[in-house]
Amino acid sequence: MKDLPKPKDFYSRLRHKPGSTDWMDTPVDIRKGMYCYAANPKSLNTLSAPFARDWNPVEEDWKLPENWQQILHEGFKERLERFRSFKVFMDICVRCGACADKCHFFIGTGDPRNMPVLRAELLRSVYRNDFTTFGKLLGRFGGARPMTLNVLKEWWYYMFQCSECRRCSVFCPYGIDTAEITIMGRELLNLLGLNIDWIATPVSNCYMTGNHLGIQPHAYKDMLDFFVDDIEEVTGVRVEPSFNRKGADILFITPSGDVFADPGTYTCMGYMMLFHYLREKYGFDITWSTYASEGGNFGFFTSHETMKRLNAKMYAEAKRLGVKWILGGECGHMWRVINQYMDTMNGPADFLEEPVSPITGTKFENAKSTKMVHIAEFTADLIRNGKLELDKSRNNHLKVTYHDSCNPARGMGLLEEPRYVIRNVCNHFYEMPENTIREQTFCCGSGAGLNAGENMELRMAGGLPRANAVKHVHETHGVNMLACICAIDRAVFPPLMEYWVPEVGVTGLHEMVANALVMPGEKKRETDLRGEPLEGMEGDTDE
Amino acid sequence: MNDKGKIVTGLVIFAALVSFPFWYNLGKAAPPPEVVLTDKAKAAKECVLPKDEIRTEHMQLLDVWRDTQVRDGQTVYINAKGKSYIMSLSNTCLDCHSNYKDFCDRCHVYASVDPYCFDCHIDNPKETK
Amino acid sequence: MNVKYMYSFLAVIVLFLIAYVGTEAVGLQWLFGVLIPYAALLVFLVGFIRKVMGWARSAVPFRIPTTCGQQRTLPWIRPNSIDNPSTAGGVVVRMFLEIVAFRSLFRNTRMTTKPDGRIAYQWEIFLWLGALAFHYAFAVVVLRHLRFFLEPVPAPIKLLETVDAFFQFGLPVVYLSGVVLLIAVAYLALRRVFIPMVRYISLANDFFPLFLIFGIAFTGILMRYFSKVDILSIKALTMGLVSFSFPDTAVLKGIDGLFYGHLFFVSVLLAYFPFSKLMHLGGIFLSPTRNLPNDTRMHRHVNPWNYPVHVHTYQEYEDDFREKMVEAGLPVDKPLAPAEAEKE
């Protein structure tokens, strides 16, 4: 953060102008602050990924295998056959430019190659050269170019400046989805061992220990035990999470980020308190797992195969524990994977039951095949049926706005459930401008594995449109809390807010639920979960 | 998911639409129509303008005639050869070419042209459209 | 000077001259009037079908609709059944609106960075309007041209002509579609030339079809309103093409070179079509982010090439951590071996 210019300067330097030379003639400049470090070979080896080696993106020599062009060509061909999306998207773009200023990375960097259309052209130009008659005939004039080392570097640099948020796809008249292009681009790069470490190492950790952070089972339990103490301090109630318990009704899976770092930890406490409340009142029976202790899936940012390998744990653990169905925590890309990939990759989950809320009896018809329910759906249903005793005023110190995470918005359509929950747990809720929420929501700028430390400039640039919208409601309504349902959001928004809108905090949905939740046998709450005094309760300590 | 059936159906419809004119006219040659000249027209030998010109320009000529007659009150047109004609569709053109159906209509129908002149000027040929 | 649009422009001029000189000076009316149009149509049809079948051959492994509205979920939350369809019916409506009304493009916004630090997004309708005007005008022009290929001319085509000439001005009566087409295609081309970012992303492949279509509309308008080609001979030729009984060479020779330029443009467009971005005509139907319902949590989608992968099983995991798990009081499937247990 300290290397960054002042936000004002950052903003005023922003130019959305084309380069002085044609993009194909503009050499790629891999710039510090904009790229992530190369994958640690050890992490690649965990999954037997090819060509694990030490290499440095800013060095001339990337230590590529001799036949790297052939590997890419064959990989490209294979993916064209396997994914109609890829093939159609390579062929039908008319370059109308509607997508250009929809990308948060383009808005925040002004780099023309961050326009979704050009990001796709990076691959499309090679596609024309290798797979189309006109490309072969006309060459450069027909928009084709051969695969060279420079092109490869360009691919790498810009495939890791896309967060696969799909905003461009909403506006594209043909539905061309740059996320799909980036996914393919990254798969191809991975064939040459060209991953970034911020993805490769979490993937390796997740594979071996069950979660991205590499938290081992006993440590995972320890961390939740700390939260038990913290919760007791605030509420006077001692919650009792259970782990890896066979015969439980429901398995709970959430991103490990919430176990590890503030402010996600408060969301994690929120889940624990909600489950305890439901157990005390209605005999709700749920277990956590240390093996399937990751909701997120950085494999999704590597390749379809890696995604499948990591995702397999969810159903495997549900089967082993003999639960009825799975409840999933607040996470962004996790839910795109669950909604659009999991059942296809690792299903059918015929060993599970169609999910029914044991408290309200509501059948989650929309999840009858995957058998996995989003906690926002679950909680919204509880509130709707009057099953939660809530004291909204405990969130009166918060003026909340809500950030739709990209994947639940554009890869699922989970828009109303979280809003319903927010309106029922706090009194002050303000929406950001229309063009920045729901299906038009802006990315946090750090999704798809780009939430590293070394690319902070990129992150601040990518998060600018979101931060700008938050700033708007901060200035007009005094908003001081940004709510979200994504663990990456919770990890990356604090620095983004600190940089662009310093007075705004970040919270998960269930942190606010837990603050409002009146627990059976609780003491008078004087602070929220963060230990901050509640409005109107300050003087009560003397009693 | 197997959607090949749907795609092939779509393509068949597409191909059928594109090749529709071939089916529609199947086996029927449609040469341009021959127009019939009345005896009067034959006898006159020449029209207001030379044949090639009158073929492509008659609508323009009539348009000019109408404006000149109605707006400027002139009634006589003198062609390049110095021959004069009354500027009237009914009284000049349709006087010779009184066979509307076998003259005017032949080409108009073939080329799918439907001039609104004849919405009114159909009295002289004494034929109904 | 931008090579991409200058060369595309020159290419169109040259194409016209080839046909014009080829017929007027060299007398190749049979080549430009008959052989090339047939070849072009064949290339178009075969190329189009092959391209689409090529797409069809590729698998649809996952169901990846871009959801642009509320999902179908709890019964009391109203789903957006068009922008986030959960049924085939919803998909049909979504696709229909996408194809006939360019619904996604309709959402277009323009971003501006204000000096006071605000980033604003405004609704931007001109690209949508231009695109819609262009496509509809082109469609009407194409349909209107059926009068040259059908004998007798069916009533719907005549009706279309009447509607298209609704304002009854000019002589011959001006068809609105032709004017709109010319203006829209000029707008789309000028937009590419003058908006810096759009020029930057444009390829020769983007300018060429626009110039070509401009050329088609321009020559068409010239023939109808200005140079007055011999329409009967032209219909004799076009009817000959669709009924395989051609008029005499003398008739072909009598048609102005301008017409052969027009026809050659159309032939080039047809032949170019399947190998170009113009295939978005077929591609839009197959776009997996639009033509699939968002129902994968309700119904399992099957991936035809789903292959087994290596996973790190629970058993392997427990083997790695059994001791620590037992120590932390976590349940294990396999108890510690006696030797290890003793150590505790």
Q: Can you summarize this structure?
A:
The complex is a heterotrimer of chains A (543), B (129) and C (344). Chain A is mainly alpha-helical.
Can you walk through the features of this model?
The complex is a heterotrimer of chains A (543), B (129) and C (344). With 543 residues, chain A is mainly alpha-helical. Chain A folds into two domains: 7-30 and 50-194, no CATH class; 203-530, no CATH class. Chain A has helices at 7-12, 41-46, 68-82, 84-92, 104-109, 116-131, 133-138, 149-159, 167-171, 178-191, 197-209, 217-235, 257-260, 264-282, 304-321, 333-346, 375-384, 406-410, 416-425, 456-462, 464-477, 487-500, 509-516; strands at residues 250-253, 286-288, 325-328, 372-374, 400-402, 481-484, 505-508. In chain A, β6 (481-484), α22 and β7 (505-508) form a beta-alpha-beta unit. In chain A, α3 packs antiparallel against α10 (178-191). Mean pLDDT of chain A is 95; it is low at 539-543. Chain B has a domain at 33-119. Chain C has 344 residues and is mainly alpha-helical. Chain C folds into two domains: 3-286, Fumarate Reductase Cytochrome B subunit (Up-down Bundle), CATH 1.20.950.20; 314-343, no CATH class. Chain C has helices at residues 3-24, 29-57, 88-101, 103-106, 126-144, 155-164, 176-194, 196-201, 204-227, 231-243, 249-253, 257-272, 280-283, 314-327, 338-343, and strands at 109-113, 119-123. Chain C has a two-stranded antiparallel sheet. In chain C, a hairpin with a 5-residue loop joins β1 (109-113) and β2 (119-123). Classes of the chains: A mainly alpha (543), B mainly alpha (129), C mainly alpha (344). At the A-C interface, α3, α4, α6, α7 and α9 of A face α1, α2, β1, α8 and α9 of C.
* Rounded mean pLDDT score of chain A: 95
In the CATH scheme, the class of the largest domain in chain C would be Mainly Alpha
- Please tell me what the overall shape of chain A is: globular
Largest sheet of chain C: 2 strands, antiparallel
Task: Count up the helices of chain A.
Answer: 23
Strand order in the sheet with the most strands of chain A: 2-1-3-4
Poorly predicted residue ranges of chain C:
none
- CATH homologous superfamily of the largest domain in chain C? Transmembrane di-heme cytochromes, Chain C
The percent of residues in helical segments of chain A reads 40-55%
Fraction of helical residues of chain C = 55-70%
Number of strands of chain A: 7
